[in-house]
Amino acid sequence: QVQLQESGPGLVKPSETLSLTCTVSGGSINDYYWSWIRQPPGRELEWIGYIHYSGSTNYNPSLKSRVTISVDTSRNQFSLKLNSVTAADTAIYYCARGYSGSRVADYWGQGTLVTVSS
Amino acid sequence: QTVVTQEPSLTVSPGGTVTLTCASSTGAVTSDYYPNWFQQRPGQAPRPLIYSTNKKHSWAPARFSGSLLGGKAALTLSGVQPEDEADYYCLLYYGGAQLVFGKGTKLTVL
């Protein structure tokens, strides 16, 4: 059974870069689509973007200018970088695995809370 | 900006049937939007239930079903159980550029 685990700083200062890593265990990162999804406290889910194991990416247009998702197949990990963060980026960040561009989140990590504050 | 609309809240009695819907600001939802449905209990990560309109994940109980209804995606729960009380989110696919979640429906079993 595939498992995903998010890791990274829980506190980021405004204007800095949020960096998270998702480690995949119980399966290879090869094949599949790997997504980042976030949820501000008490609010709805927001799709951030995904990367295919081949390296092709697709980002939410509203975040595209600030987001980079990358994959490290040798470590079975993929990562999220979101720059120029503000308090509005405070959220639980989830990583997920999917089978296609339209089915992006069949397996989820437990999520990690990232707070943007000075 | 594309908006996906769900009922903010619904209430159903145990053993009853309830249908949650998911509408798109761009027009009628069709199978080309590949609707996904997720259940989220408090403090937990979302759990996928349905993909591609009506395909059920192996772990989803039989009482959950997906469909298209009146230009919307729909999730029907038949024989509702107390443990079905949760938030439910739909996710729509807009071609190669975008995926958008609905704002969610809070389902109360009372």
Description:
The complex is a heterodimer of chains A (118) and B (110). Chain A is mainly beta. Chain A is 0% helix and 50% strand. Chain A contains no helices and 11 strands. In chain A, strands 2, 4, 5, 6, 9, 10 and 11 form a 7-stranded mixed beta sheet that branches. Chain A has a 4-stranded antiparallel beta sheet with strand order 1-3-8-7, with no helix packed on it. Chain B is 0% helix and 53% strand. In chain B, 39% of the residues are buried. Chain B is globular, with a radius of gyration of 13 Å. By secondary structure, chain B is mostly beta strands. The mean pLDDT of chain B is 96. Classes of the chains: A mainly beta (118), B mainly beta (110). The A-B interface holds A 44-47, 58, 60-62, 94, 101-111 and B 1, 34, 36, 38, 45-48, 51-52, 57, 89, 91, 93, 96-104.
Poorly predicted runs of chain B are none
Largest protein interface, residues of each chain: A-B, 20 and 23 residues
Helix percentage range of chain A: under 10%
Which whole number gives the mean pLDDT of chain B?
Answer: 96
Backbone CA Rg of chain A: 13 Å
Count of alpha and pi helical runs of chain B: 0
Radius of gyration of chain B: 13 Å
Helix-strand pattern of chain B, N to C? EEEEEEEEEEE
Structural class of chain A, by secondary structure, is mainly beta
The end-to-end span of chain B amounts to 36 Å
Task: Count the DSSP helices of chain A.
Answer: 0
Q: Which terms would index this structure?
A:
heterodimer, A: 118 residues, mainly beta, 7-stranded mixed sheet, 4-stranded antiparallel sheet, globular, B: 7-stranded mixed sheet
Summarize the structure.
Chain A is mainly β and 118 residues long. Chain A has no helices and eleven strands. Chain A has strands at residues 3-7, 11-12, 18-25, 33-39, 46-52, 57-59, 67-72, 77-82, 91-98, 107-108, 112-116.
